[in-house]
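Appendix B, example 12.
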Amino acid sequence: MGDARVPVIVGPTAVGKTAVALALAAHLPIEVISADSRQIYQRLDIGTAKPTRKERARVTHHGLDVVEPGIRYSAGRYARDAVLWIEEARSRSGLPIVVGGTGLYIRALVEGLFHEPELHPGRRRSLDAFAARLEPLELLRWAGRLDPGFKGGGRQRAARAIEVALLTGYPLTHWQEAARAAGAIRPWYVVLTVPRQVLHQRIARRAEEMVRRGLIEEVAAVLAEGHPPSAPGLDGIGIREAVEYLHGRRERGTVAEAIGVSTRQYAKRQETWFRHQLAGDVVTLDATRPPEKLAAEIARLWKGC
């Protein structure tokens, strides 16, 4: 599988990746492999900006609605699943195209599969409970002590580093480095960019649209199922601001603005990641143009490479 190139469309959140991928279906027999760490959670459609049911009927998508909001889903598991989705698309003579903004997912897929050693279920639950009681800075310090290669991140990444180090005897970065010897795909990157001001405007519109379409009600329904606010699926930007409102920690009128602030910060981190972490064939395109024109250019470049 490592000999076959795969188009990988990346860029910051709200840059227009989904629209471009859908437009690309007019030129190539594509199937989309989502690389979004939030869209894998079921029933959180508005808060994760998933393609609509109508859009999914037009183009086959993989990697959406994979697990319940209470289930943790690692980059290693994503890589294993994505390889199967890519093979499934090819079995139908489709062109698999990876589309998303989660750098860790893309790195796991490109650089190799992390074959997670078996972890004792009881000890794993105990460590999860321990990590949940720690303050964020303390959690990060533990992760750094147990895994010198730990480069930081949120609660989920830090808890993951602690868990693997304590339950396997080796840090997570050890297992990841061992996986890099066998990359799963050869990527052909397309990076979509827009000026910062344009991106901020798109982010603001998306945040307002999410709230208008029923983001808060969607999150309330998931909480009503019994999932705690700390569940992995409820920790993403957009969803956590709705959780804060539902638990009385912010006013409803501030939800969209708070989502916009957090999303802008995240988008900046994404842009930095994609500038420095992509290796090999990389094409950068101006995404201020209509999705149809971008799709036509991507198809032309793909057919000519």
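The radius of gyration is 19 Å. The mean pLDDT is 92.
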